[in-house]
Amino acid sequence: MIDLNADLGEGFGRWTLTDDEALLSVVTSANVACGFHAGDPSTMRRVCALAAERGVRIGAQVSYHDLAGFGRRAMDVPPEELADEIAYQIGALQVFARAAGSRVSYVKPHGALYLRTVDDSEQAEAVVAGVLRAGAVCDGPLPVLGLPGSRLLAVAEGVGLPVVAEAFADRAYTRAGTLVPRREPDAVVHDPESVITRAVGIARDAAVEAAGGERIPVAARSLCVHGDTPGAAQLAWRIRGALASAGIRVEAFA
């Protein structure tokens, strides 16, 4: 079985990016933007209400404070400040999740913060510290969603937080199992058929073709579909259908 997650609520005011309603009919986990790279209070409330109505797990998609750069610009934030910002974002989303009759069930960093915590122990520790600080309003420790082998998952596991490894069908991988940075050519896989094939390969065989053609192991419990990809909802439906045809059950992680 595998979880299917998507980045949702990535709009601000009158500007919208993700087709939240359509994607919430497909995915089992929703990574909801918490206002720092995208999202605003009304968007957060609306997405939480829709997710709760459809039985979709709500996750806090935390990021650097970078609305102008959509959270994809590298930033140097002091660890204590970053930990507070992570706790703040989780707490804000929890208000709307609770109001919808649900709760924040996990945390996933976004963009530059996600990539930074693959190798940077200090920033990974700050994110985990923020997750721990938010635990008091989240009924205990929250699982952390991240890249297999990352410092983030290692630090989280080291302090007793549950961890969930995820993979990306629409992102290129290096031979080392990390994501090819978006600034490099062909970092994003655009061909729908290739994305679907990669999704099934990850879920069924725990492997994916890296840049250069080498097949590498990718053990993941959750598969991400980027909500800002054109036609994301239709692609997600096709992925889910292909997974079912391959005998793979799509189900939220425990």
UniProtKB/TrEMBL annotation:
Keyword Transferase: no
GO biological process, alphabetically ordered: carbohydrate metabolic process
InterPro entries for the chain: Glyco_hydro/deAcase_b/a-brl, LamB/YcsF/PxpA-like
Alphabetized SUPFAM superfamilies for the sequence: Glycoside hydrolase/deacetylase (SSF88713)
CDD domains documented for this protein: LamB_YcsF_like
Source species, domain of life: Bacteria
Keyword DNA-binding belongs to the record: no
Cross-referenced PANTHER family: 5-OXOPROLINASE SUBUNIT A (PTHR30292:SF0), UNCHARACTERIZED PROTEIN YBGL-RELATED (PTHR30292)
Alphabetical list of NCBIfam families matching this protein: PRK05406.1-3 (NF003814), PRK05406.1-5 (NF003816)
Function: Catalyzes the cleavage of 5-oxoproline to form L-glutamate coupled to the hydrolysis of ATP to ADP and inorganic phosphate.
HAMAP family to which the protein is assigned, alphabetical: PxpA
Family statement drawn from the similarity comment of this UniProt entry: Belongs to the LamB/PxpA family.
Protein name stated in the entry: 5-oxoprolinase subunit A
Upper taxonomic lineage: Bacteria, Bacillati, Actinomycetota, Actinomycetes, Kitasatosporales
